[in-house]
Amino acid sequence: NYSSKDKAFENQDVLLTIATDAERAKMIRSSRWGGNRVTLRNIPRGSYTVFLYVWEDNQSERFSVYVNGKEVEHDYQSGSAGDWKRLGPWPIILKNNQAIEITSRGGAANFSGVEIWRGQYDGETKIREEHLAFFENRIRPILVEHCYECHSSESSELQGGLLVDSRPTLRRGGENGPAVVPGDIDHSLLIRAVRYDDGIEMPPDEKLSDREIADLEQWVRIGAPDPRGDPTRFDRKKIDIEKDRLFWSLRPIYDPLPPTVKDSSWPITELDRFILAELEKRHLKPVEDTDRATWIRRATYDLTGLAPTTAELRTFLEDKSELAYERVVDRLLDSVHYGERWGRHWMDLVRYADTAGDNSDYPIPQAYLYRNYIIDSFNADKPYDQFLKEQIAGDLLPHEDDAQSNEQTIATGYIAISRRFGSVIDRYPYHLTIEDTLDNIGRTVLGMTLTCARCHDHKFDPVSQEDYYGLYGIFESSRYPFPGIELDKRPRDHVPLKENGKPSKTLVYAMAEGKASDSPLQIRGEPKDKGDMIERKFPDVLGGFRLSSEEARQSGRLQLANWLATPKNPLTARVMVNRIWQHHFGAAIVRTPSDFGIRGLPPTHPELLDYLASRFIEDRWSIKKMHRRIMLSRVYRLSSKVTHREDENAADPNNEFYWRFNRQRLDAESLRDILLQLSGELNMEMPREPHPFPPSDKWEYTQHHPFRDSYETNHRSVYLMMARLNTRPFFSTFDGPDRNASTAVRDRSVTTIQSLYLLNDPFIYKQSEKYALRLRKETPDFDTRLRMAFEQTLGRPASEDELRDTKVWFNALKGQLADSKTYGEEMEQEQWSAFIRVLFRINEFLYID
């Protein structure tokens, strides 16, 4: 006897996920809800197994299920509309006259059906003998003859992601959904395909006979009995690993000898020989060296993002020794501002931001610790391989003391700051966060577009879906910190730092180990559509290393970190030296620096690239030594001027072979910093405190009212709070980085808005006024003051013609100001402020030659 006083409810229009047979679907869509108490009486004593069907017709609910007062399902989430599940099995022993009572507590639960098995549940019923014979005699031959060629584990290329050579894969289906829904002909795509309905025509060459179609229909109608219980798997044989490893970026790094050149007097270093050899091959000649003032301005901005001081400029110009250039480079590399400059380049790549990027853009108050870790690491010349290992798996690396442990834990902020998405609690899209992680590691470290293989094998590069989900499992086995979202505002899962092997009260936004397990392949990239389980591994073309049984007890991040940083990996060193070269010359050897794949551009100087990569590894991954090697070369001294070089301009208009230096505009950070530096307003200290975010218990950010604060400071631009969804206008105007994706190469736009900003913005007026006050205070003499202004803004002494013309300009402006009744101190301040604004707007100030 069945009884329930709950409200009856039915909605047969909701599409179920996953589709099921017609009768079961009808049962699921009819439910009881409200009080949620179902009682079954007059059941004979004995042991039973109980299942409960539940479904969701609207918004997700949380509830727990009880059988005879015992909790059997804790905090179940019902999911989205159409989601259903058969909960159980739950064993129960009934005594005399005992009923089975099923109840729930919590949110509104839709009870759709109860299924009871006598005794212990041992799986589904066996296939009836006549049904088995029908399958073997009438169905299997059709599938083998007409379908296996394109839809089996033995296919040369799998079509539509559909395998029909096993019961689980046939029912799971392919890219268009389940191929067979037992008992439901209308929702079985296999039947629609063989009927040639709705534009689906299978097999494509010739339609099946009427009898074959009728047999398939009858088979589905009786429940699609199928003895092929073990799921099959398609190994994508189209990737020829050995052949693909011959591609230039996947070959082992080799150490070429510097080539012989005709003009042996030109090269200063071995590096120069690689450049000159390519120029001579193309009948190109390098331009003359630049002047020393231009070189020191170039070098100083390159390594610190700041202009040389007047004293630094004059010291270098007066130093005629052979070691003058070397002294400048060493001094700049020892500067604390070096880490700020080159840390900013790394922050571009790892899409650093102080907010999470979800719909409400929740703050991450602890993110600044990772920012400072980056800067400190560059200043310390931390070996690049160690730098990578700490950011991927610092929490798992050995350490000597708490300080090292804490530093390495903070380093995993690289993974932790992966972008968050959405605003809902249920079905929180962590798969998109993991995708962002893999996308960034692929582009930043390997120069590979890994996430093109999320939904299907990579269309161009030798990366399969198995490769993608082999890496995916590593991060699904890791625990990301939770920043908070609109419907779940409380941050959690932060990691405590250590104080005295013990956890302290200081929590950081970092990674930790989760539940270690492999992950299923997601069909078409949909988390709900599970495919085969994929063993955690690295891409096959790069070795395909698997975790040992012992290693598989952890996430695999440590093994991934070690693999990324091994000298045997052909990509890591190549990618990084290419980036260093890019930031010194304004263009990389591989001009698609985050894509070393087939769709990327090949290197202009492949031997030079491998020569630099070999030196990088030989120098124990020292980035500072690579700077010295590049900056002390002859090619780095070349002028950017191209007058009277028509032949070279015609043969190599894009300067791919470095016959001249590339003129580069100041990036947004350097422009803001030099304006503050000249005005005397720049705070040169590294802030060791977080941004002034409000306390987390006050956060009420929503999708329609996201976090929008902007905290102004006179610290260097690298220390500004950067939100993902709220761009600062200055950085938008001057092509700042995208905080939502890896920025390998910044835009270099020239726009009217930039000109208008330099003409009219209050920030420009304020800094010019303060710089004018500073010049007048520090240098009373007019001529000395004028020379200093040229040296400090343009990085060179003024010419006599410039001094003469500027004085004429000052006198003309004096007359104009007198007409407007401006006299004395006020007139002088206006003159100098206006003159400074002129300097701020000319190309020589805005560009590095």
Report on the structure:
The protein has 849 residues and is of the alpha+beta class. The chain is built from 31 helices and 18 strands. A hairpin with a 7-residue loop joins strand 15 and strand 16 (530-534). The termini are far apart. The mean pLDDT is 92.
Distance between the termini: 90 Å
- Count, helices: 31
Q: How is the largest sheet built, in terms of strand order? A: 1-4-9-6-7
Structural class: alpha+beta
Mean of all residue-level pLDDT scores:
92
Strand elements, count = 18
The helix content is: 25-40%
Please report which band the strand proportion falls in: under 5%, 5-15%, 15-25%, 25-35%, 35-45% or over 45%: 5-15%
Report the C-alpha radius of gyration, rounded.
34 Å
Uncertain residue segments: none
The rough form would be described as: elongated
What summary fits the major beta sheet? 5 strands, antiparallel
Keywords for this entry:
single chain, 849 residues, elongated, five-stranded antiparallel sheet, 39% helix, alpha+beta, three-stranded antiparallel sheet, 31 helices
Topology:
Elements: E1 2-3, E2 7-10, H1 22-28, E3 30-33, E4 37-40, E5 46-55, E6 62-67, E7 70-77, E8 84-94, E9 100-106, E10 110-118, H2 129-146, H3 148-151, H4 167-172, H5 189-195, H6 210-221, H7 241-244, H8 270-281, H9 292-304, H10 310-318, H11 324-334, H12 336-349, H13 367-379, H14 384-393, H15 402-411, H16 413-416, H17 430-446, H18 465-476, E11 478-479, E12 495-498, E13 503-508, E14 512-513, E15 519-522, E16 530-534, H19 557-564, H20 572-585, H21 606-618, H22 623-631, H23 646-651, E17 664-665, H24 668-679, H25 729-733, H26 752-760, H27 762-778, H28 782-794, H29 800-819, H30 824-841, H31 843-846, E18 847-848
Antiparallel strand pairs: 1-4, 2-3, 4-9, 5-8, 5-10, 6-7, 6-9, 11-14, 12-13, 15-16, 17-18
Helix pairs in contact: 2-6, 9-11, 11-22, 12-13, 14-15, 14-19, 17-18, 20-21, 20-22, 24-27, 27-30, 29-30
